[in-house]
Specification:
With 136 residues, this protein is an alpha+beta fold. Helix content is 43%, strand content 11%. Strands 1-2 form a two-stranded antiparallel ribbon. Strands 3-4 form a two-stranded parallel ribbon. α2 links the parallel β3 and β4. 15% of the residues are buried.
């Protein structure tokens, strides 16, 4: 998982086993951000509707940031044709773009890692590479 800031640049990276639930993954990523002393940079954390309201509320307890559930509601309809139309979610495209940038790293796309620690190290290197490209 990759946490991105409002600019779409990586804030933290956490690799978890595929069997980890989405809510647990987000919790671990937020813990990683706190370990890195970056939690003060957060005002709002958006999570998708794969996480229950109860878990979202628990994630935001005693934190300096708000955790809000955000996602797909009713799909918009074109008033002229009556057909459903695609409307991108505000801010969500930044996360998708960050994931796409991360996957441009050839090493990550091959998935040769045997441990989550090794995979995390390579994901962090890819995030650093993205940051360095952006500040040029």
């Amino acid at each position: 998982m990759v946490a991105v800031d409002v600019t779409g640049l990586p804030l933290a990276v956490k690799v978890v086993p595929a069997s980890t639930t989405e809510a647990d993954s987000v919790g671990q990523l937020l813990a990683q951000i706190e370990i890195q002393n970056q939690a003060d940079r957060l005002d709002l954390v958006l999570v998708d509707k794969g996480i229950s309201n109860k878990r979202v509320q628990a994630m935001g307890v005693d934190k300096s940031y708000e955790v809000r559930r955000y996602g797909w509601g009713k799909q918009p309809v074109d008033p002229n044709t009556g057909k459903k139309v695609f409307k991108p979610l505000k801010h969500a495209w930044k996360v998708e773009a960050a994931h796409a940038k991360m996957m441009n790293s050839r090493r990550l796309s091959k998935s040769f890692e045997n441990t989550t620690e090794s995979a995390t190290a390579w994901a962090n290197l890819a995030a650093i590479q993205i940051l360095l490209r952006e500040i040029r």
